[in-house]
Each structure stands twice: as structure tokens, then as C-alpha cells.
Amino acid sequence: MIQLQSIKKSFLIGKEKINVLNDINLTIEDGEFVAIMGPSGSGKSTLMNIIGCLDKPSSGNYFLEGDDVSNYNDKELAKVRNESIGFVFQQFHLLPRLTALKNVELPMIYAGVSKQERRERAVEALEKVGLSDRMDHLPNALSGGQKQRVAIARAIVNKPKLVLADEPTGALDTKTSKSIMEQFRELNEEGVTIVVVTHEPEIAEYADRTIMVRDGMIQSSRFERGL
Amino acid sequence: MSFMENLIMALSSLKAHKMRSILTMLGIIIGVGAVIIVVAIGQGGEAMLKSQITGPGNTVEIFYQPSDEELRANPNILLQAPFTQEDIRALEQIPEVKRVVASGTKASTARIQKKLADVSVTGINQAFLQLNELNTANGRNFSTADFLGARRVGLISDKLKNELFKEKNPIGSIIMVANQPVEVIGVLEKPTGLLAFGSMEIYLPFQTWKIIFGSSDFTQVTLQAYSAEQLQTAGKKAASLLNKMHNTEKSYQVINMEEIAQGIGQVTRIMTLIIGSIAGISLFVGGIGVMNIMLVSVTERTREIGIRMALGATRGQVLIQFLIESMTLTLIGGIIGIFLGWGTASLISFFAGWPSLVSWQVVLGGVLFSMAIGIVFGILPANKASKMNPIESLRYE
Ligand SMILES: Nc1ncnc2c1ncn2[C@@H]1O[C@H](COP(=O)(O)OP(=O)(O)OP(=O)(O)O)[C@@H](O)[C@H]1O
Ligand SMILES: [Mg+2]
Fold first, then answer.
1. Which tens digit of pLDDT belongs to each residue from A42-94?
2. Is B225 a domain residue?
3. Calpha distance B209→B151 (Å, rounded)
4. What is the pLDDT of residues B142-168, one digit of tens each?
5. Do B189 and B135 touch, CB atoms closer than 8 A?
6. Are B274 and B331 found together in one domain?
7. How many domains does chain A have?
8. B235 and B277 both lie in a single domain
9. Which of A217, B7, B29, B210 is in the most buried spot, having the most CB atoms within 10 Å?
10. What is the crossing angle of helices B315-352 and B257-300, to 10°?
11. Which residue from A44, A47, A56, A164 has its CB within 8 A of the most atoms of ligand 1, so it is best to mutate?
12. Which domain holds residue B381?
């Protein structure tokens, strides 16, 4: 479960302090599929970074699985990212010199998984996203949709409870976007909590709930489907 | 994350920029290679110098240098041969002494029919043959019977043979040495080498020499010890024994090997210091090259660092990754440098006729030192990598 309590985030630009997030209060239950929408610059990515423990709030408290991670140090946050959270990015963010399989193995290297188990689990994850025949390809030799599937496989390989995707379909065509969203849907049905940032209403439709962010505040939180 | 995995990762990222990695290594390769060359040749030279001073086969010569008082008391003392046969027998009793090589030399003339030549005539004891190679080009060498029977036989140098006999075979001819007949039994080999002109020489068994010149004293005495370690003791004992027998204070002397070894050691230390500082500077420059390239690499791979952090790499793990990468770079450079230096040193010593010596200590030192350079100069870039902000790194283009 994710609980954000009066989260504020501000950045210093020169001497000027700009408030990007203003008093965010949000709860996301285990197993939810949430879409975050809002105009450009409204603070969606900033919010995702805080939820993903890549950034710390300027004030407020963040409880993840009941633990107050807003007080965690860098090392503890790295452990949380490694074990409890999977990231999917708009630009895929695969390491270009590693094959699909090695890219998927990366999070397990930092988790200290043995070489053999790493390989087995990476193969399993790639099979799950339907890429068992592309395992030894370098990212350059994969299409956008395939790259994003590798990224999803990498995000789920450590079996996190939460997968965060910041505009995962932003660089893909409509058809590919749909199949990627189907993939998230499938994961969600297996019990993984999913939070997706998107600009497109059709993408948000895959989620159970849509959260609208405007000027660093949550404007509305509306359920698309009955829970 | 294990060291091996880090190493494999480092190798693959170095391989991704082959040219750059090789060029960066070049500084380390040249630095380490130069050190190995200089050290190898220096150590080889030191070993050669020491063996030359010690003499081949653990030998040391005994010098006679009369004190001022002795010279005042007997101004002709230097004309007399300093070693008696008694001395030789006493020296042979010293336990560390294996052989006493003794010889006496006098300037005289050799004549056959009307041809006359100025020669130096050397009487030698049998031990002399064991240490000095008197190889005969034709005829035979001295036998034990020649020494024991004081036979009137002699070996002549190649130059003397040319002077007295021209093209004729001298073996069996009788020549007059200091007006006494001596049979020529052999001709010595022509001395080799560019600057060896040879000299007019005759060698006789010592007893024969003694009869001809009416002198029983030796002018040169060289000791041979059983081992290099015993040589110093043997020399000291011999000198004090002779001084006691002749009632002198320190007229009989041997070269003090320890002092000379110390002197050589001092020279070597100064050389090492100079070379060390030059090598240090060149390796420092190489290290800065490594640091520079690693900084570029860290900046270029900002996004990779961001991705790794997002996937759960701690700052420590990122630091270690880049440290091992720079260490791998300098280690490979160092190993190549060692082999290159080794090869070059062997080549130089092959052509210069000067031995080279690459000890395992030097190799180990080279390996460890190049690793240390990688770590020292890798700290700054690795630290920069580990301090990166994951979000900004992910956004980096
Ligand atoms: N590190 C930073 N330093 C200064 N300002 C920042 C920083 N990160 C974000 N901002 C600012 O915060 C605001 C929100 O940025 P954010 O990336 O969260 O927006 P977004 O909702 O994700 O927009 P988009 O839909 O375009 O991705 C922007 O005005 C941005 O300029
Ligand atoms: Mg954004």
C-alpha cells in the first residue's frame, strides 16, 4: 500500500524556489491499477519519482508497505527500488551494449542473485512478455514495442509488488501501445500494483482509477471501473 | 555483486571503446615498460660488475703494498718478489682456501739462432692452469710431470712464435730463454677480440723458472675459495697470515669485497632513485590520462549510471564498478608494459652483450603498482559517478 501524506516538493532554481508538488495526499491500495494524468509540467513525473523512491519529498511523509521511506538514506532507498519497485520508462532505458537477457538480469545482479538463477528467472520473465525468441538481441536490433517489453520484463524480474511506468507508450504507435497496456493489465491481474502516467485517455482507460494532477495538486480521483 | 562480475563488466565496457582504452593504456604501458627495462638492465649490470670484481670462480688477488717505513728501510723492496714458497704453503693450509695460484714474472730475452726477442717469462704453479685458460693452438699443454720434474719445457705466445719462427713449426725446437735452453712444447691460442694484439710471452713450470732465474719468489698470488661466501674470510685470513709471517702491519692486502659491494649498492641506490623519480613522473602522467578518460567515460555514461541506480545499484556499487574499471585498465596496461619491457631489455642485452635481470619481485611490483595507479587515479571519476543524482542522470542526453 502507498500512502502519501501532505507531500510537498520544491526545486531551487538560482535563488528562486518553485513549488512543484503542493500538499499531495494519496492512497493507492495493493493490487490497484492507477493512471495519473494532467497537463505538461503539472508535476506527474516528479510525483512518480517520489513514489518510486528515486527522489525524496521536501516535506510530508511517504509510507510504503507501512514503512516511512521519507526518512530512508540513499542505501536503504536503493534496496527498496531494487526489491519492491519496478520501473518502466518512456525512453525504455535499456543498456545498449547488453543483450535483452543481460538487461533483464541487471536488477538481480544488485539483488545478489546467483548467476544460474539469474539466467533462469530472466528467461522466464522474457517468456512472459513474449520475447523468448529475442533474448540474445541487442536493444538496437529490437523494435520500440519489443524494447518496452524487455523493460517490462526487467521491471518484474525481481517480483516487485509495485510497477511504475512514466508514459510507457509515449514513444509507441497506437497498436503497440495497446499491446503494452494489455501486458500491464495482465500483470495487474496477477496482483501487481501498477501506476501509469499518461497523456492519452485511451491508455488511462486500462486503469481502474484515474488521478488528475494540476499545478502540483490532485484535482480529482475518479474510478473508471467498479472495484 | 562479486569482484569477478565487476571485472567482466569492466572488461566489456573497455572493449566497447577499444581504441580509447588502448590509447589510455599506452601511458601506463610506456611508463611500466620503461621502469622494467631500466631495472632489468640495471640489475643485470650490477650483477655483472660484482662478478667481475669478485673474479671468476671465487678468486681474489693478494696485493703487496709496503708501508712508508718499509720503503725507507729498504728502498729496493718493491723490486723483490713479495711471496715466498713458504708463504704459498702456509696459505694452502687455510681451511677456506681451495687453491693458491701463484706465478712469478720476469722480463728477459728469448733467442733462437740469431733471432732475439724481448719477452716476459712467467713461471706458474700447477694450480694456475686450473684457473687461467692457457689453451694451446698446437703442441701440448703442461703435464704434472713437467711441474714435478722441473722439466725445461715452455709454452710460447702466438706473437712470439711469429717473431722467432715465422711459418716454421716451433714444436720441439730449443730456444734460449735468459741464455738457458728450453724446449717449446706448445703455442698458445691467438688472443681474440678487436683490441687484443697479443704480447711476447713464455710460460714455464715454476721450478724450471726458479732454476733459470735463480729466484724462488712469486710476484702474483691469487686465492680461490670454496664458495663466494668463504672468499671474504679466506682473503682476510690470508692477508693477516702473511702480515704476521713477514712482520708487517698491513702491507699484504686483499680487496675488501664488502666495501666495494657497498659502494656499488650506493651507486645503484642513487640510480634507482633517479630512475624511480623519472618513472614516477611518467606513470603520474599516465595516471592523469587514465583519470581524464575515466572522467569522460563517467560523463558519457551518465544515463547508464542513472539506469543502474533506478534498478537498485547503491552508490557504493557504482563507485566500485568504476574503480575496478580504471584498475583493470591500468592493470592490463601494466602487464603489457612488463612483457614489452622484458622483451626490450632482453633484446638490448642481446645486442649490447650486457646481461639483463627481471626478478619476480620486479614483476610483482609492476603488477601491484599499476593496479594502485588505477585505484588512485580512478577514485575521482568513480566518486563523481557515485554522487550522481539518479533522476538527472536518467534525463541526461
Ligand atoms: N530537477 C528539477 N529542477 C528544477 N525544476 C524541475 C526539476 N524537475 C522538474 N522541475 C520542474 O517541475 C515541474 C514539473 O515537472 P514534471 O517533470 O514533474 O512535469 P510532468 O507533469 O511530468 O510534465 P510532462 O507531462 O511534460 O512530462 C516543471 O515545471 C519542471 O520544470
Ligand atoms: Mg513527465
1. 999 999 999 999 999 999 999 999 999 998 999 999 999 999 999 999 999 99
2. yes
3. 10
4. 888 888 888 999 999 888 888 888 888
5. yes
6. yes
7. 1
8. no
9. B29
10. 140
11. A44
12. 3-52+262-395
